[in-house]
Amino acid sequence: MEYRKIKDEDNDGGTISDDIENLRGKGLLGVASVSNVPATEQAKWKRKTVVTLALTFLTSSQAILIVWSKRAGKYEYSVTTANFLVETLKCALSLAALARIWKTEGVTEDNRLSTTLDEVIVYPIPAVLYLVKNLLQYYIFAYVDAPGYQILKNLNIISTGVLYRIILKKKLSEIQWAAFILLCAGCTTAQLNSRSDRVLQTPLQGWIMAIVMALLSGFAGVYTEAIIKKRPSRNINVQNFWLYIFGMAFNAVAILIQDFDAVMNKGFFHGYSIITTLMILNHALSGIAVSMVMKYADNIVKVYSTSVAMLLTAVVSVFLFGFHLTLAFFLGAIVVSVSVYLHSAGKLQR
Amino acid sequence: MEYRKIKDEDNDGGTISDDIENLRGKGLLGVASVSNVPATEQAKWKRKTVVTLALTFLTSSQAILIVWSKRAGKYEYSVTTANFLVETLKCALSLAALARIWKTEGVTEDNRLSTTLDEVIVYPIPAVLYLVKNLLQYYIFAYVDAPGYQILKNLNIISTGVLYRIILKKKLSEIQWAAFILLCAGCTTAQLNSRSDRVLQTPLQGWIMAIVMALLSGFAGVYTEAIIKKRPSRNINVQNFWLYIFGMAFNAVAILIQDFDAVMNKGFFHGYSIITTLMILNHALSGIAVSMVMKYADNIVKVYSTSVAMLLTAVVSVFLFGFHLTLAFFLGAIVVSVSVYLHSAGKLQR
């Protein structure tokens, strides 16, 4: 439960960052700004692929860490301190990346840390949206059980697509829309088990909450992309730094409200283990990867990336934990694979 | 079990025919042969739609009759006599359609009943293929249970697509191939139940037999299309008449071998009921519809038609028999619907 909370937040791109990887991206972009030759396109495509693969890898290893931690037993650390550390680590990584850039390129209009109220005022909005969504999460369990909630979370895929179209005004081809519906159906199919049918008995309030949560989560993701892409030349590490500063602030408040006594009595790091440390590291890197996908690709790529990660996790779990794959999983995996193909085939035909 | 045997045969297009519907088609085709105006295309498209809808309707009502007959109890008629009557009825309907055509158009080279050995020699081949397939069907149950066999039968979809490409040398676009894979995955998903995972434990022999059966069934369907389309101007009723004559002959032999004693002692129509009669009528009309789809559309359309019929049957069964639809059914239905859309979208973009 505790682990899922962190997971949901990061998977949805609640907190966003960039890192040293960006240095390479920046170098390539230097060529891009000079001339519009195919080499630029190739470099962009390469960077997009690298960040997408990184996100896929990090998301699936994240899920595996969760299973591992569950098997190892319950951890008694406070979630708020872990979330705070994740934000702090992302901030630190952004600053480290910026320091290297300043050394090589000097401080410019695009990479200076100082900002204007006009630029920074929208940055806390995604964090607030996730906060509302996470609050709702406690109430939805009155209507749906945990496996049912996992099924309903696939509505995020549809809401992200719809809001991506409405808010960012980017068009998907009809084939790509079809692919997106398939992605949602395929992911849900892959997660089917003998008790999944219970989700059909969800009362109306449960459905409404699930849809509202999907819309909040989709809106937060799309809004983050809008913020980051609003100034394409602005260095991503600066954008991330400001996003994460608000993340740190929100989580600091959460520590004070929820876990002040525990931290005071047992210490900030009480209950931490190697797995906790690995998970914090993983969440920080995943957050950075989400942010880079937002900058150099988009929310659609992010959704595909995390969906494929879900399938990879299941396959890896067969070897690591002796899980059994169901027929439904294979069918869902086929549908998701076809969806990935159609997404790119649909793009080419535009 | 007995009913399924008839069903498999007809669903797979084991026996083929045409009927009075063709008169209208022929009338429209009269215009078509004069000029190649868009009106011709429209008429062709209309005829294709009518036969496809007829096949979908007949196939789904066929499945509903099967459920109804199962509920009503076991019927003690002999399957061979019922199959024989189906073939006879199709022959009679073909002759009746021909008689009307001869009256209006006179006897021509294309609609005369007499034939050459060269034309007719290939006609028994599909019947032989189905015979082999139906024999194999008894052996596969040593390795797979009945629900598992229903799941494995979806391999027919893939085999039909592959053989359609290889034998008829007709190309499908990449999008259409993707749609075809989705159709197979979607149909299987819609049929999932709590015991479906057992099919994954099927031994190698079972898989091999299932694949061989799928290939036989796909080959028979594609081969029938090849026969019927080899002479496009030849009247479909004549082609059907010869196909069904062999069907009658094969089934007459089957009566002699399997049910000679029962027929002699209890009579030809022993155990017949209203449902038996309705099913024979339905099978005859379905066979005719399959044949018309082969002539005016193709095996791909036939596969889509019977897949959509499977979904329709399930929905209608909710109202008729109080069946419950599963989440897997809804997901499968979404995937099949997207597949139908992609099949036509993929065609337009060629």
TrEMBL record, chains A, B:
Alphabetical list of SUPFAM superfamilies matching this protein: Multidrug resistance efflux transporter EmrE
Q: Which UniProt keywords apply?
A: Membrane, Transmembrane, Transmembrane helix
Membrane topology of this protein: Multi-pass membrane protein
Pfam families registered for this protein in UniProt: Nuc_sug_transp (PF04142)
Query: Where is this chain's protein located in or outside the cell?
Result: Membrane
Q: Which InterPro entries does the UniProt entry name for this protein?
A: EmrE-like (IPR037185), Nuc_sug_transpt (IPR007271)
Give the molecular function GO annotations.
Answer: pyrimidine nucleotide-sugar transmembrane transporter activity
Q: Does the keyword Transmembrane helix apply?
A: yes
Membrane-spanning ranges: 50-69, 81-99, 120-141, 147-168, 175-192, 204-228, 240-257, 269-291, 303-321, 327-344
The answer, when asked if Membrane is one of the entry's keywords, is yes
Q: Which family does it belong to?
A: Belongs to the nucleotide-sugar transporter family. CMP-Sialate:CMP antiporter (TC 2.A.7.12) subfamily.
Name-wise, this protein is: CMP-sialic acid transporter 4-like
The gene it comes from is LOC111283086
